[in-house]
Design brief:
It is a single chain. Strand 3 and strand 4 (101-109) form a beta hairpin. A seven-stranded antiparallel sheet has the order 7-6-3-4-5-9-8. The protein is built from eight helices and 21 strands. The termini are far apart. Among the domains are: 90-167, Trypsin-like serine proteases (Thrombin, subunit H), CATH 2.40.10.10; 304-426, no CATH class. Helices cover 17% and strands 34% of the residues. The longest helix has 26 residues, at 3-28. It has helices spanning 3-28, 80-88, 122-125, 269-282, 309-312, 318-321, 343-347, 382-388, and strands at residues 34-37, 43-46, 92-97, 101-109, 115-120, 131-135, 146-149, 151-156, 161-167, 189-194, 202-217, 220-227, 239-242, 247-254, 264-268, 304-308, 328-332, 358-365, 371-375, 394-407, 413-426. The chain is an alpha+beta fold and 436 residues long.
Length: 436
Amino acid sequence: MTKHNKGYILTIVLIIAIVTFALSLSACIDLNSIDTITGGGQLSSSNDGNINSGTDLPTTPNVSYTVETSTGTPNAISNALTDVVSAIQTSVVIINTDVGAGSGVIYGKITNEDASMVVTCCHVIDGAKEIKVTINDGDINADNDVILNASLIGMDDDSDLAVLKISGSNYNYVETRNTESAPIILAEQAIAIGNPLGAGISVTVGHISGISKTINMDGVNMTLLQTDTAVNSGNSGGALFDAEGYLIGIVNAKSTGDSVEGMGYAIPIYDVISISNSLIKTAGNPQFNGLGYIEGKIRLGVVVSMLDYTALSKLNSFGDYLPNTNEFYYFISTSYELNKYGSVAISDKNKTIEPGMLIRALSYTDANGATVRKTFSEDFELADYLAMAKVGDVVTLHMIEEIVTVTGGIFGSYSYSYKEFDVPITLQQYVYGYVG
């Protein structure tokens, strides 16, 4: 008999034994008397009243027992995976703020300063007034934990990344994977290390199940790695490593639901490096209170919806005023809050742009000094202009405002008129977290 056949037969025998054992157990279980875990971590039992307490169970009085048990020692507790985890786990830290908890990775040492950078997710520290970083020393004794105050270097809400500064430089820094020479591939092993549910550092192991998954998070489309490695709230900002311990991503999301299992997401390491380095490079500018930013990034700072004539005709009486053309318009949401970080808020403190207005077109000066007026269409959107514009450019927004006149009291008649006006905006550097 070959070794392969022996293994096959052994597998069959084990399956039969397990099934037989499970059947015998099910025949003995009283479904009205199930052990549950109480809040104190003790087992308690709910029953149908047939058994009042443990003292009523049949016993043999005045008999002492000697029980023989077996203990074995494995040939090798350590293996390639445990060795990797042992080497990398202390590069992951716990983050606690006054708004929640999460994780982070020790990104690098600051040159000529006894300090280091920690990368985490923007949503982990967004809105926090105080940030504490607990250094992971690799043991379970919390009494000797080193807890440091962290200061914010910069954050970017679109990429969901943030960089913090902590004192000290004698840390286990993560080593990032060179994905140009070693691209991330499907089904390769992935190791997540973080602070799930704020309960301390833990390790889960799985695989990469998607390379470029587009996920919408809070209205922003992000291209992320997908993994079946178990992650939970608190893992955000923590590490996703490959099988050799190289950092391949920062965990930032998971899909939940009755029909969802094993769908976690991480920001790919190439994006982590690009965004983090940009935040670090631009930090320290007193113009923005020292906050780092993505150089050249622009936002108007208003929430808009691109609507055609048919859609607008259903909003009050806009359809009676606008020509029936193929043009599109941007309706400024009635539910928006003026983004205090955007160019509109910074350039126009008087808030001449208000909810319910329309942006009909825009004008700008091209490279030849000519004024270009552009209406919106499926081929030209507001985002297309912002993508080609530069900080310091002036754009004129051509606006339409609806004016409602009421006669005869609250139950009287309504009439509508419209006012067209222009709003010049000087485009500002977008710095998330900077009020101005």
